Amino acid sequence: MSLPLVALAAALVPDVVRIIAGDRAGTSAGHVAEAVRSVTGSDDPVEAQRQLDANPAAVTQLKIRLAEIALEQEKAQRDAADAARKAEFEDLKSRIADTQGARSTMVELARSGSVTVWGAPLISAVVTVGFFGVLITLVLGKTEPGPSEFVKSVLNITVGALVAAFTAVVNFWIGSSEGSRSKDATVQTLQAAQTEQTNRAIQSVQEIAQTAARAPAAAAQPLAPPAAQPVRPAAAERPAGRGNFAACLVQVLQQEGGFVNNPADPGGATNLGITRKTLEAFREKTVTEDDVRNLTKEEAQEIYRANYWNPMRCDDLPPGIDLMVFDFGTNAGPQRSVKLLQRVAGVTDDGSVGPITVAAVRAADPAELIARFAQGRMEHYRSLPTFEVFGRGWTSRTDAVKQAALRMALAAAPAS
What is the 3-state secondary structure (H, E, C) of the chain? Predict the structure, then answer.
């Protein structure tokens, strides 16, 4: 582990110190140092710092990698804590089962008429009487001043033994109810602790993601962008697309049009962009071609929101980019659209929008990201065997959506 590289990362993202401090295994520090080494290409902290100062994109890439390490460490800590609490809970259940088993045995002995059944009540009575007798004697009785050390030791042993025996008696006779209450309390404690840890993990990752979002450039550019567009918002954090669903849906519906049933289209009967198969899945029953034809805009809107907008987390994407992802997702599938977004943003294309993806997208220049996304979309279309049939329409749609997205991004850009 190179401590100077870890210190460099900590200066860039202060939360690195907390990540390393919370890792008892000591692996996080090595991962942090390796992240700095892989991004800057140097083991020398001075050279690594120089590389970061000269390359803002490397700074963003390093911040994103540190966010990934934070996620992994938080998950490992949660898993370890969950395992410890589960073991404690299993031990509690075992002790409750032991108490219940002893009581069940006594009930069986009573049913069989065995005299052994009187053993537990008799011992319990003796212990209870002895406990309270000694307690009353100690409280109300008068003892000689300055008892010997031997007498003190005997009294301590006697009282301790009676307290332990009385506790066992109480647990034996009413332990089931107390155990149930303890079990419920334990479950509630486990749930509260897990919720608290999850919230801390989410907050931590969001803080790192927000730090990465303030970087002035995207981490990587896997697709060469076309000619530069006029949109150039400031490098500050981009606003997310919350509340932009209605505006994006208008653009999607304009492209989808009304009812069609093209034999060359594998989707079959489609209305407002909703295929028969999609409608059947949403209604959870078989539908006819007439059902597709009679689909209302209100129901189509709910399908778009539930099947595409929400799963792709478009609310968390900047205006314009949310439209690009949303429209391509409705046309080619949410996972394919998200993976394309992740590739052009320079993060792992796992098909799931998380804090790292959101941070990278908000850190990128909107116009360049929109252009690269449109280029990647067209590359996908050209790879399809039906491009000769639908290629002209796909090209027209991609260009129209790109222009609408650029207008949205320009309108949301902060005033310079």
Answer: CCHHHHHHHHHHCCHHHHHHHCCCCCCHHHHHHHHHHHHHCCCCHHHHHHHHHHCHHHHHHHHHHHHHHHHHHHHHHHHHHHHHHHHHHHHHHHHHHHHHHHHHHHHHHHHCCCHHHHHHHHHHHHHHHHHHHHHHHHHHCCCCCCCCHHHHHHHHHHHHHHHHHHHHHHHHHHHHHHHHHHHHHHHHHHHHHHHHHHHHHHHHHHHHHHHHHCCCCCCCCCCCCCCCCCCCCCCCCCCCCCCCHHHHHHHHHHHHCCCECCCCCCCCCEECCEEHHHHHHHHCCCCCHHHHHCCCHHHHHHHHHHHHHCCCCHHHCCCCHHHHHHHHHHHHCHHHHHHHHHHHHCCCCCCCCCHHHHHHHHHCCHHHHHHHHHHHHHHHHHCCCCHHHHHHHHHHHHHHHHHHHHHHHHHHCCCC
The total number of structural domains in the chain stands at: 2
Which of the pair, 299 or 235, is modelled with greater confidence? Answer: 299
Weakest-pLDDT range from 2-16, 115-129, 302-316? 2-16
Please tell me whether residues 209 and 161 are part of one structural domain: yes
Q: Read off the pLDDT of residues 149-186 as tens digits, 9 standing for 90 and up.
A: 666 666 677 777 777 777 777 766 665 444 445 455 55
Domain span at residue 195?
Answer: 1-217
Q: Could you tell me if 180 and 304 lie in one domain? A: no
- Provide the whole-model pTM: 0.47
Q: Is residue 368 part of a domain?
A: yes
